[in-house]
């Protein structure tokens, strides 16, 4: 590797990597793994996305839950970090079912948080609403077959959102109605 050459983007790096041997590439991946917890999580997710034990998915789920209900103390509500965990998982794995699961985890925990601790603020509810809209769009665009697996959780979020302000309750009801109409024939369980 020529240290005098400054890298201007992926194209330069890709060009250099093409000439590296397999042991050199493995050493680079190992260095990246060791330098950052985010890199470790990404690599574990990439190589374990389909693992039966779901360890990779659980690692990202914990990052989301930690923002609302940490093991100690009070939730910091760093919503950007929770949303980043969802994006990172999706980028690392491309796993639609896991991404849907994490988006739903985000909405569930945010909704539960406001039920336990009271009214938050408009940006908080906008973030939950945005995640729910992304979730609904994933179901409608490419995950219709997954909806039955998550339907009870989605309907539970609708129940939890009852009487929450900032228009959140109405938005949740509208989004769930879209799903039910398109994917469950408009029939809610009785």
Instruction: Look at the structure and give the mean pLDDT.
Output: 87
State the shape.
globular
Give the number of DSSP strands: 0
Number of helices: 9
N-to-C span: 66 Å
What fraction, in percent, of the residue positions are helical? over 70%
Counting helices, strands and paired strands, the structural category is: mainly alpha
- Determine the strand fraction and express it as a percent band: under 5%
Radius of gyration: 20 Å
- Report low-confidence residues grouped into runs of 5 or more: none
Biggest sheet record? none
Order of helices and strands: HHHHHHHHH
Structure description:
The protein is mainly α and 190 residues long. The chain is built from 9 helices and no strands. The chain is globular, with a radius of gyration of 20 Å. The termini are far apart. The model has no long low-confidence stretch (mean pLDDT 87).
List keywords for this structure.
globular; single chain; mainly alpha; 9 helices; 190 residues
Could you provide a short overview of the structure?
This protein has 9 helices and no strands.
């Amino acid at each position: 590797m020529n240290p005098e050459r400054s890298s201007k983007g992926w194209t330069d790096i890709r060009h250099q990597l093409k000439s590296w041997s397999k042991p050199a590439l493995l050493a680079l991946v190992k260095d990246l793994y060791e330098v950052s917890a985010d890199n470790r999580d990404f690599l574990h997710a990439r190589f374990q996305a389909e693992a039966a034990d779901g360890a990779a998915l659980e690692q990202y789920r914990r990052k989301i839950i930690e923002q609302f209900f940490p093991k100690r103390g009070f939730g910091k509500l760093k919503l950007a970090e929770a949303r980043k965990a969802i994006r990172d998982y999706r980028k690392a794995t491309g796993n639609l079912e896991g991404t849907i699961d994490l988006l739903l985890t985000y909405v569930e925990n945010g909704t539960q948080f406001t039920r336990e601790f009271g009214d938050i603020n408009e940006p908080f509810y906008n973030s939950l609403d945005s995640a729910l809209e992304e979730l609904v769009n994933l179901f409608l665009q490419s995950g219709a077959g997954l909806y039955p697996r998550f339907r009870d959780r989605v309907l539970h979020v609708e129940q939890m959102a009852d009487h929450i302000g900032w228009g959140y309750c109405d938005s949740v009801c509208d989004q769930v109605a879209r799903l039910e109409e398109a994917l469950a024939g408009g029939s809610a369980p009785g």
